[in-house]
Every structure is written in structure tokens, then in C-alpha cells.
## 1
Amino acid sequence: MTAPLRIGLVGYGFGGRYFHAPLLASAANCDFRGVVTTSPDRRKQVEDELPGRKTYASLAELADDGAEAVAVSTPAATHMDLVEEALRLGLATVCDKPFAFDAESARTAVELSEQLGIPLSVYQNRRWDSDFLTIRKLVEDGALGDVTRFESRFERFEPQPGPPAAGGGTLLDFGSHLVDQALHLFGPVQSVYAEMHVRADNGRDDDVFVALRHRDGVLSHLWGSWRQAAPGPRFRVTGTDGSYVVGGIDGQEALLIAGARPSTTPEWGVEPPEQHGVLHDRDGSRPVPSERGAWDSFYPAFADAVRGRGPLPVEARDAVATATVLDAARTSALTGRAVQL
């Protein structure tokens, strides 16, 4: 089939509004039908910001209107119920992260997708950050030699009110990206150690550190925080022949929040020279031009996969692997001991 994929969106909060709707609307091979929401305020926002798109009261109503697929961008606690409902309605599904609260729930959803033969993917858009794509290229090209340690951070300073409830806490919310990137680069993990600060006022963790030892020997050190007033570099990757460091965060999030769209921004995802990372090796230090950030490639790839023209942009089984590591990190933080996988 060559017709655009008829797809809807569930949820129009921060994630749906900024990270999904603009990219769905910009994907040439997607027919973005509208948004499932029961909130009168959200419906009004959709009418004002997405002219020509409908609002639906339920997933069933979206499916009855001819949709073939749906993206789920709602609070984390609702993900699994919505994914199951969508799959049983025959809708190819993308689910935002954190995909599930635990590995067992993630595995159940993936197995349902496989039993029904309905495509399921996870919205790990940070795999297409400019800095991460640059690191992947440096690793693949051998520019760092054999990688020994991978350091990655999502650190912010908003001690009050701290992490939003919708994300399920810092380990799940930030950790879903941090762990997914580490696994994507360096493969399976054999041990997990974690430290966590939990807020007394709401029980949510707002500062976490996770150390992974991959089976290939690489160490991944991952930080996620809402209480860090002096953030460290976004990435530092160390190998036997050199290190690569990048300070700031990929600019695609800021572009979307500011109202820019991939379909109308010719230089989408191109980082300015002052944001480029630096490679340090025996020959000195020099900036490395960043790869183009490509969040705009996710939904076109998903549509192609549903049409049978390529692989899913993110395999659903990857979410099970990530959730398994996050479960182990939670156990480690509670016991003070490393967990063997």
C-alpha cells in the first residue's frame, strides 16, 4: 500500500502537544486524523492549534473513523491499558516512554502484540538526538578506540515541585531514555547498581544514579535529576584512544516548544558550531560537527513498517530490556547492592 497511514494521537498534554502532534503532522506518509481526549480544555486546544483535525471521545471512536494506527502520549500509569485496548482494536501502536512501570507489564503488552500480529513500537525519540547520533558514528568508526566508559545525564534544577507525576518519577522518566541509549550502543547488561533520592512529600524519586556493566565490558554511568543546579556534560564517552564530550542538550525539543516544525524548518536538527562536542585524543582537542538530529524520521519509519516497507524504528522488545534494567536499578537502590542480570 502507498496511501498515507491513517493515525491518531491519544493525549494532548505536554508530550502529545509538543513531541507527537507536530511530528505526526509533518510526516508526509502519515494522515494525522486527530486526537483522543475527553478534556474540554484539550479539545479546545486541538481545535485552535490543529485546524482540520478531529477530536475523539475514545479509541474505539478513532478506530471507527478509519484510523489504522495510534500514538499513546498520556500519563505513564495509563499506558498499558491504552496499549492493550488499541491493539485489540487492531490499531498499530506507538507508546511513549516510560513504556511500562515494570518489565512484567512491558512483556505482557509485547506478547499481546506478537499474538495479534499488530505492530507495536516505543517512542524513544532520543535515539535521534544529534549528539547521540554523533556518538554512535564515532563509536562505529573507531575514533575512540575501544570504549571503556559511557557517561550520560539528564540533569535539571527544579527542586520544587520536582518531577511531574505523569512520568512516574525520575528513574522511569529520564531513566527510560538513559538506559535505552546505553543498551542501544553497548548491548545487554550483566549487573546494575543504583542510588536514588526519594522525596518525603510525594514519594517520587527526583535524583538517581545508575551504573551498568555491559556484557562487553563497557561501564555506563547514568544520571537523572531535578535537583542538580550544576549539571554535568550531557555526554562523556571514554575509549582507549580518546574521549568525546558534549555539554548542551540536543535542540529539537526547544524548537518544537517554540513552534518550529520539521516541514517548515530547512535546517531542522542541525546544531550550531558552538553546540558541537569536542574530541580529545593524543593529537589534541578539536570540535566534531554534530550529525543532524532526526526526531522527524520516527513517524515516517513507523508508517513504512506498518506498510511492510521496513523495520519498526524501535522494537517493542527493547522496552522490555529497558524495563528489566530499571527494575534492577530500583531493587539496587533499595538494598544498596548491585543486582546481577
## 2
Amino acid sequence: MPRPKIGVVLAATGRLSPLGAPLEYVATGLPWPVDVELRDSGSTPEGARAAVRSLAGVGARVVVTLGGTATLPAVVDACAEREVPCVSTTLPWQVFDAGRRPGPAFHFCWGLDDIAAVFADLWERLGPARAVGCVWNDGTQGDALRRWFAPVAAARGHHLVDLPYRESSGVVPAVGDVEVVTSAATAADLAAVVRARRPRLVTCSRWLTYPFGVARHGLDRVATIVSWTPGHEHVGSGGRTPRDLARAYERATGSPWLQPLGLAHALFEVAVHAAQEADSPGAVADVLARTRLATIAGVLDWTAGPAPGVATVALAGGQWRGGPRPSLVVVDNRRAPLVPVSGDLLVD
């Protein structure tokens, strides 16, 4: 009997390619009881849709993907058009769910409200009711933060000063007289803001969850969200631990582990579970809808999500320590107690 086939859409080329490397390693560098077909999105929505068409054509039973504000929804929608179940991650679940066409789509991630709660926990180390400069772009990212992040932070008593700007334009806003800045900017844009006026504390999601720009742009002490580390106390399929996975990835690639590595592994754990449990290709979506599975990224539960087809991931608070090879230190785990704290929050 042929093994189930799992399709993978990843960014092997283009702007998002750094995020494609962990998923490619998990798909091709680890043993799975399925056949795996990879397709490159080229980091564009058009490429993502073409990748799904190709995977549907070769009989993929389920498609997995991660990352990309524009590419991930393109994968989800293309899978819905062909009625191929899709499992995705690393895009805040409200952005994934907003305006999504119906289809066999299943997502796991944190929410923008979760980011706001973690960041507010860190801001309040400086005292209650902070004035926070919000360096948010005038596109999809910024709009989502204004809709779902801002109300949570404001409800905690913080005064948010909205500082909209056009990303990568070379012109960044002046943050004024605030002690705290929060951002979802590129590393280069955030570095320009920090150079102009060094706040006491900077919190940034999006690209600053990864080390790429920390050393290059001198962004030591930037705080961020932490979804997965080698220190997480979770166990994945076959008894693999986060530490096992991180070490194997670093040996195989010569590159440091990234947070998407654990989420990519969980994608495969979920997809393999569904493909094996379904008694027919058409039953995969039914299995996913009732899945509650312990993975290397924690327990993922689609039976109790905040929205249909959504499971959540707990977040901790972290902060970068600079140097040629920046390290991510967990500084607050009150919302993710299975993540051990490894350092103190440093402020200027």
C-alpha cells in the first residue's frame, strides 16, 4: 500500500528564504513514515499558489507551510480551492483567520493579543502605565497590530503613541520622549529608530524573533516573543526533545537553531498524525478538526481553539544578547511556564 504523501510549500529562494531552511531540514533531514514533496514559493504569493497546484497534481494528502504575511494566506486559499487540507504556522492567528475563505485549513500560532500581553509584562518591569511609541508600518502588519494588539495594551493602562511609517523607505519616525518603543519593523528600520534615540526598552516581534539582523544592526537588548527554544520542556514524535532537534539541525547545517525549527517539526507531527489516522484521503480534514496532539512545540488542540481551525501556542518573553553570534535569553515565562527563564531583562 503506498505511503501517504505530504506536500511542503517553503521559501527556498527570495526574501523569506531564511525561514525556509528550518522547514526544509525537518522535511528532508529527518525520518518520517510518509513521502514528502517540496515546492518553492519563491517568497511570493504567485509562487505559493503555483506550488500548491503542483502538489495537488501529484496527490499530496495534506500540505504544510509556515511564515509570510502574503505567502501563507496564498497557500491556504490555493489549498481551499483544490480541497486539499493545509496545516500552517508562524502567522498570528487573527491575521490567518481574518477574511479567510472556507476550506480544510488548520493553523497553529500565537495571537497578536498574546504578543501584547507578553510585551506589556516586560514594559511593566519599568513601572505601570508606560508611554509606548509604536513603530508600526502602514501596511498589513501595522493594521493588524492596531486592531488586535493595541486594545490589549491600552486595557493594561499603557498610552500608545502611534508612529506610522512606510517600511524600507529610508524615512523612519522620531519616537519622541518615550521610554519604551514597540515595533514590527525590519531590523534596518528599527536600528535607525534606535540610533536616533535610544529608549530604555525596545520590544519587537516579526523579524527580531530571529538573529539575522541583531548583530548586523547592533540591536543588542531588543526584547521579543519566544515561541520555541531548545530549552522548552516538550517532547515530540519518537521521543525527540527540543534540545535533540536543535543540536541535530546545527550539526547538519552549520547554522544556529531558529524558532521556526520547532514549529516546523510540529507541522510534520500534525500532518503525519492526520495522514496516518485518516482511513481515506478525504478524511484527513476530519482528523485534523478533532486533533489534540502533544508535539515538540507543546500541546496543539484544534478542539478548543479561539476560532475554528485554530490552535494556539504559548509565548514567553525573551531578549537578545549581542555579539557575533547573538543569543536569545528567556526573561519572562509567566505565560509559558514550560519554558525555563535563562536570564534577567536588561534595560538602559
## 3
Amino acid sequence: MLYSLLRRVLFAMDAESAHNLALDGLSLAACLRLSSLLAPPLVSDPVELMGLRFPNKVGLAAGLDKNGAYIDALAALGFGHLEVGTVTPRAQPGNPRPRLFRLPQAQAIINRMGFNNAGVDTLVINIRRAEFPRRGGIVGVNIGKNADTPIEKAHEDYLVCLEKVYGDASYVTVNVSSPNTRDLRALQEAAALDGLLARLKTAQARLADQHGRYVPLLLKIAPDLEDGQITVIADTLRRRCVDGVIATNTTLSREGVEHLPHGNETGGLSGAPEFRLSTAVLGKLTHALRKEIPVIGVGGVMKREDARAKIAAGASLVQIYTGFIYKGPDLIREAALGIRDPAGESSRRIPDDSIRGV
């Protein structure tokens, strides 16, 4: 009820301004220990995956907190994990505003943000300042390339980011699927992807020795893939022993929203209209992977049935973003309860509240 009232105020504002105001408000609520007014109790449904213990299967997708500046505020809402970023080696402003558009009739968002962020060094500082990771909370870092880095040198940017975040990230996601950075999706093609992952896996092994800990490496793929491309990506992931994959990023499709205001804006579409497409890709990918690599399902999760469908299609975890914007913190609990192991505990706080945040 409270979020419904707040959403009316936020949706009366420009989308990006509302986004920033909402995050600042969450941060203030966390500082004042008032997060419980917005957040339902944390759902306990622990799962071990990639050597990590997730307190439940619902996480926050990358893009909401690009600089890791709101980790504790978001952790207090009951997420099982957070993914921050996308971050690039150098700070960059992203694409010109306006670049974020709501389509409320379709429960969707179109964005062309363009990896706007303060740079990897700032993100690392913010992670180190946060209480949540120090208390065992899982914070993944999504990495990308700067817009002005030539595509043939993209691997250099990913290596810089991996090197800098390795010591502070729970896992690292390689973003080659955003539609808002020119030529980025070309890195999903067979030769380019194989070369990029080979370099990153070599660096990962070196960094694991250097830091004395193994940090899983994941790949985030697009929903706009042909079946043959999915098979090639799956083969490459297995061959390079990538630890996990996130399916999917936003889509270039406009099916179902063409007639709506802002429906033909340039950028990636997320939310309810993406659900069917992203879940189909998820299912095909998990089949091609032969259950050898875990998959995190994201794209269009707006209710518990959507989260269940992602798990049924082969996902081990799910992430939400647009659904969180439209439904608020209640969706975290609803989705987590919807996919909880029937043999698991009842909804309650995990006894060690240290993993929830502050």
C-alpha cells in the first residue's frame, strides 16, 4: 500500500529523476532504520550455487545501482543477492537524456542509458564502504567496455574491470549484450566471444592465486538470438568453463508495444512484454548447456508465476528489475515465496540477520 502511494508520486516525474530520487529515499530510510516500513520479511530459501550461499533465489538485476552506491539500502529490502553495474574502466556520461521511458500500459520500460557510470574505481570504493558484503551478502559486479573503446580492444576494458573488482566482488558478470553501446553485441559472435572468454578465464585463474579466493565468472546474453547462436554460445561457455550465465538482457523487439506512447523509442525493452521471449531463450540455453552450467533467469518477472516459469525453464536463480519498479519490494517476497523449495522453511527472517544488510 505504501509503495503504491509512493509510485504515484514517482510516476508523475521524469523517469530518470524519479529513479534517482527513489534510490536516495531508500538510502535515507536505511540510514534511519526505517526500511521495514517498505520491505516485507526476508524469505529464507537458501541455495548453494557457484560456491556461494544465496539466502533466497531472488536477486536484483544489474542496471538499477550502476555505481554500487545503494547496496545497503537495497539489501535491506530482502533480495537474496544484488548485482551492481554495469561499470566501465573510466567514468562516462552515457547517452543524452531523455534515455529512460516508462510504458505503464504494458508494465514495461525502454532505456538507452549507455553504461552511464562513475568508473570502476568509484564502484570499488562504494562496495568497500557497504556493510552488506562485509556481513556475507552476495554482491555481483557487472562489467562492460567504455563507449569510445574500439570493439577490437574491448577485451582490454573487461580485463581492467575484472582486475579491479575481483577482490571485492562475489561474482563478476561480463556484459556483452546491452543494446545501448555500439557494436557491443558483436562480442556474442563465436570467434569474438571465445577470444574474450579465453582471456578472462586466464586472468581469473591468475587473480584467484593472487587473492586466495575463486570468484565466479558469468556471461550475460541477449534475448534476440537465433537457435544456432544459442547453441554456439552454450558450446563456448562449456569449453571455456564459464561459471554461470545470465539470460537475458533487454530486447530490441517492440512486439506488443508499438502502438503505445514511447513504444518506438530507441533502446532496450524490459518488463512484461519481454517475458515470453527471454524465457524461451532461457529454456533453449539450459537445454543446450545440458545442466552443466547454472543459469540465472531475468526478463519480465512481474509476479510469482513468472518467477516459477523461469525456474521451470531451467534457471537456478531469478533476478528482477522492471517488476521491482512497478510492484515495489512486495514482488521480492512474492517471487521468493513462489519458487521456494516446498521442503524449505516458512517465510521468516534468516536467523543470522547479518546477511540481510543494515
## 4
Amino acid sequence: MKEPFLSVVMPVYRAQEYLEESVRSVLSQTFGDLELILVDDCSPDGSGTVCDDAARRDERVRVLHLPENRGAGRARNAGIEAARGQYLAFMDADDTMDPDIYEKAYQALKGGSRDMAVWGVTEEYFDRAGELAYTNVIALPDADCDTRQKVQDTVILLEEKILFGYQWNHFYRMELVRDHRIRFEESVIYEDYFFNLEIAKHIRSMAVLSAPGYHYKKRMNDSITTKFIPDYFALAVRRISSMTELYRGWGALDGQAREILGNMYLRYILSGLMRNCDPRAKMNGRQRKNWVRELTASRLYLETAAVCNPKQMPLRILQSFLNHGNTASVLAMGRAVYLVKEKAPLLFGKSRKIT
């Protein structure tokens, strides 16, 4: 059987309600030289049956039934091991795509001469009743990064838009993934980002598409993005730190990179302050104060967030409070954001848009 150009890996867990639409979104792409690998991560609902039905209907579909639940990262790794394509892509089991986005990405690869392609995202926010409340489009202009220098110049711009940290808006050259043994690590969040960080160390060319062809469904339910994650801030710090070190290693930790990373870090700090107010954090007032003091004394803070020029007024205020040691005001900001998130989650989500 002829090997496909593209292998699409979709981890599946508790996705029965949305799975058929997501599978159809892949199989109805105008670019059809692909295989879809559905990785049933020992899902307790009827998702496994939906996967098997899809395989019976379309010979491009293959199903892996894992014997135990391993999490999305390990499920993707199982799909990578089974993939046969020249390029690799991923898809979440509750999202959709524009029908021509793979065709556009294929064309941008210039006949397979680019190591990676990345495109924009349409975030779709749903209320608790399941109704679409609003959308947010995130994209960069089209760009053909045909040199290593252009790749380095563009990665930080993708990270600023949060486009770098997703896996489902990318095509990856499979040879790079296999030769360098790049796999998803076991992490509650940001496993996509750390996968892409390893990819960035090796690619020499990249295509960027302005088309926001991936539709990321953000639902007000018990998904991983709405749960309380104890390690959230530590992982966020690792994200900023690892990108800082990547650019330091490239000799490119210049003013623009510091500005972008500093602004991102301030957003994570505000989010960390908010999470510290959650009763599940089990932090008292003294612990929250010490958290702030340790943060402002760190090297990462001092070389990024402390010296950047925040674009948004709340971040300017936060930076001023942090830099002047006004811990009480810093904690009050965190409490205010926490209350907004608890009382008006859709408003909170809207206020965090990346434009």
C-alpha cells in the first residue's frame, strides 16, 4: 500500500459527543493524501466504537486501542510510532478545521522542501449551555522562512501570538521527528510547547500561513484547560525560561525577544497570582507574599518582565507594583482577577485574548 504524504494523529478520550465531526473535518480535507490514526486512549465512553466505525467507512483511517489510559501526550507518541507519512500533523478530537487548510499547508511546503508549516487559529468560546459566545482569530502574515535566520526571527513572533505552542496547527517533517527522537513528554499542560521547542532546535526552514484554519473549541466544562493545575506556574516559568535559553543559545536574545518574553511572563504572573487565590492552592497570605518576593528576585524576572515595556495597561500597573515592591497591591490585583474569573468566566476569557 502506498505510503501517504501526511499522517494525522488524533488522541481520543471521552470525545464521543464531538468525535464524528472532528474525524469528518480531517477526512473531508481537499488534500486527501493522508492517513488518520485514531488513538483510543482507553476511553470509557463510546469513543472507541466511533473510531472503529470510521475505519470501516474509510480505508485511510487506522485505529490504535491502548490497553490503559496514558494521557494525550503518550497517546500522540503511540500515533507517531505507527505513522507512515512524510509529514506529521495532529488533531484534537473535539475541534474542527477549514476544509482547505491542509491543501494550503501542503502548497506552502514548496514540494516538501520546508521542514515545517504553521497556520493560524480561530478560537471559539462556548458558554455553559454549549452556545457559541464569541470567536477570536489569531494569525501572522504569510511568510516563507527559507533560512535558519528567518526561522529564528519568526519563532519568537509565533510564540508571542501563542501559535508556536500548539501542535494541531503544524505540519512537521517526519524525518526530523524520528531522527531526533522527539516525543511528547508527560505533562499536564504545555506538552505541545515543549515538543515544538525540540523541533525548533533542528528545523532550517518553515512556512507560515495567515489562514486561521484550525477551530479551537473552548468550552466552559471540565476540560484540562478549565481545571485547577497545581503545577501551572512552575510550567509557565519553564516555558518562558526555555524560550529565553533557546534565544540565548542562538545569540538572538535581543530587545525584541526580551520584550515579547517579558510581556508573556507578566501575563503568566498575573495568572499565577489569580490561581494562588483559589482555595485549592492552599496558600495563606504570608505564603502569597513570599511567592511574590521570590519571583521578583529571580534572574528570569529581572532580565525579562522587569525591563520590558508592557503593551496592556493592567500589565503596566502590575509591573510597576512588582518593580517597586508594592506586594499588597500585587496581591490585590490577583484577587480581583480571580473574582472576575469565578463570577464571569466568559468575560475573563475575552479579556485574555491575544490579538
